[in-house]
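User: quick one - fold this with acetyl coenzyme *A bound?
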Amino acid sequence: MSSDKKAVLSWGEGKSAEFPVMSGTMGADVVDIRSLYAKTGMFTYDPGFMSTAHCRSSITYIDGDVGELFYRGYPIEQIAAHCDFPEVCYLLLNGELPNAKQRSDFVNIVTRHTMVHDQLNRFFTGFRRDAHPMAMVCGVVGALAAFYHDSLDIHNPEHRTISAFRLVAKIPTIVAMAYKYSIGQPFVYPRNDLSYTENFMRMMFAVPAEEYKINDVLVRALDRIFILHADHEQNASTATVRSAGSSGANPFACIAAGIASLWGPAHGGANEACLNMLESIGDASKVPEFIKKVKDKNSGAMLMGFGHRVYKNYDPRAKLMHETCHEVLNELNLKDDRLFKLAMALEKVALEDDYFVSRKLYPNVDFYSGIVQRALGIPTAMFTCIFTLARTVGWIAQWSEMIGDQDSKIARPRQLYTGSTSRNVSPIAQRK
Ligand code: ACO
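Assistant: Sure. Structure tokens for the protein plus acetyl coenzyme *A:
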């Protein structure tokens, strides 16, 4: 981890201090500045963590310049081609892909935790029917802590494991319940003879009057959406989960914090915002006008589903999503889908435009995932909940890794104070 390399900081008149440089297995070295304040009396200033590694992690690695993503060292393209979502969950949580027996044991345990406490149903009825489903999912996941007092000791590895199973198993049930509640249909309970993704689709789309017919192409497409969103190293919501967990908060509270962070349009809310953007553009003939608006900084318009803090190349997940988009639209005889054509036209124009080229703005995973979800029958307001479902496993893996890391400390950043200097309080009658 540490290397012989050192970084030297010089400031003022002839002052300097030396800091160790740490190397990972891939990616940029990091300067270990933990002793910066002690050695220099200064802090660093880095809003948005543009240059700050806030932890070490062995789960996911992104090479943003090349456009590569690895889960535990496996390229995402190979994972997407050869694994299903439960295998990916096992990999993220345990570090290795499961063999057949390990996979079957894992699926068995997850399957047997999919039901939620009956009392939890009442939480949904406390919400207005028109509540955003993310508000419901965020609240209900946080509330799970009230049901599982038996497994909240974060320093007990068995408790951490059981909480991980519960979260991975129950999140599809909770997301489907939020949807059913929002459209006024009865909840559909999980069925143990179905796969993880089949089960979720049935809980979303079956009604007491009619069983849901499972279509393998559509199940595979949704499973791929889950795989592609399962983890993405230190993004905003994962950093939020780690930050919440650094105080010793229970995993359900931490995941609820992650859900709140994911909801924002610059993060998980982007797929919803992207589809709304496509709807508002209308058709391919309006693309030049829209691109002109995006380039005008005063318009406030952005090309949603484009750009990424880390990828300065094509997001590899966007390529896979584009492929899945074709498969799903073919299967459903929607080859001429208006929004898909519009998205492809938009992408083509943007990739040839100097504004996007010079800023290295490429499509991210959300550019096509909304179109796939819409074709699967998932309404726009549910998109970020689907992302939540998939990312839950990544959040737990990252939370668990943090708890086990000796270097972890409560996340407590410093600041550059720019307020008033010390002054005296005047009695109220003397204040202007
Ligand atoms: N449309 C138009 N311009 C953009 C876009 C975009 N989608 N994204 C970035 N830019 C411009 C910025 O205005 C800025 O221009 P400037 O240099 O002239 O000021 C430049 O590109 C750099 O952008 P930053 O905002 O500094 O990049 P940052 O790394 O902070 O932001 C982010 C990344 C938040 C993803 C941004 O690209 C964005 O908001 N994209 C749209 C929302 C989106 O798709 N989010 C999903 C992210 S992936 C995920 O969470 C699954």
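One thing worth noting: Residues 157-182 form the longest helix (26 residues).
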